[in-house]
Request: fold
Amino acid sequence: MTRVVQFRIYRYDPDKDQKPYMQDISVEIEPTDKKLLQALVRVKAKDDSLSFRRSCREGVCGSDAMNINGKNGLACLTDIDSLTQPIVLRPLPGLPVIRDLIVDMTQFFKQYHSITPYLVNDDPPPERERLQTPEEREELNGVYECILCACCSTSCPSFWWNPDKFVGPAGLLNAYRFIADTRDTATNQRLDDLNDPYRLFRCHTIMNCVDVCPKHLNPTKAIGKIKELMVSRAV
Amino acid sequence: MVKRLVVGAGYGLRDWLGQRATGAYMALYTIIFAFSALTLPKMDHEHWSALFSGGLMRFLTFLFFMSLAYHAWVGVRDIWMDYVKPLGLRLALHLITLFLLVGYAGWAAKILWRL
Reply:
């Protein structure tokens, strides 16, 4: 049996609209439509002027991140039944809006690239792969899974106020991913780079990042571990 | 001057750790102070002065005020760094905060040794 779902969606087309507005729209969904993204695709079928990003539809690509009833999340992982109606959808907060639910992620990725997000190892390559013990590999669990959807960074007040200087939770989680990796030899440079009142220490442990992460990762814990390593290096 | 965004002041850890350490000390002092004050035989000026006449209590209390000043310096400076964007204004606010806190610490020491 079909059901009706009510939406209130942020709309803004810079070519046509003077300023953003909220559009009320409802759609009929099928019993097989469980996730918010499925309902959104039906909204798009009804009003094709609506723009939003989506790709894998299973929480891997991270492109359909948006603000859902006031909380950042992935539309493809959010159950329609878990939401009160009308479902209010807005673009991720703190980033410039390109159109409707699509934001300009340049600043977010600039911060991600600033942490050298790849293994640095100047040692001669071994004949086979660089090995890790199971314990060393274990440390990467809970950090390597980040899909860079930006839910965390765009829910972080410190990132809202200083997006150009504060790396943000996603960037710092990834920074820890390479600091924690025993195959990486640039640990000291990485810690030097983050020992800065803006880049790392704008984090005030608000923990919005932990609250919203659709992959249930814990950037605050990773940031704490970076600080711990800095202390162990300095004291 | 070429306008470029620069970061890398290199003092993040020192202040963060200092703020935690001073916070922990202030919590400890609060317990010591509350215990000392509540176990006074009588809450009057004579006993109050006697409490602070001991060298150890003066040392601990002075350390508390120094901790408070350092803790507040990092905390208030964080607020300016978070919200105040114009460099000149931010520097002015930093200096005002610093001067006030140094003044307060001196004032606290004066009161402490006069009690």
About this structure: Chain B touches chain A at residues 5, 7-13, 15-17, 78, 81-83 (CB under 8 Å). Chain B has a mean pLDDT of 93. The helical segments of chain B are 12-38, 45-53, 55-83, 87-114.
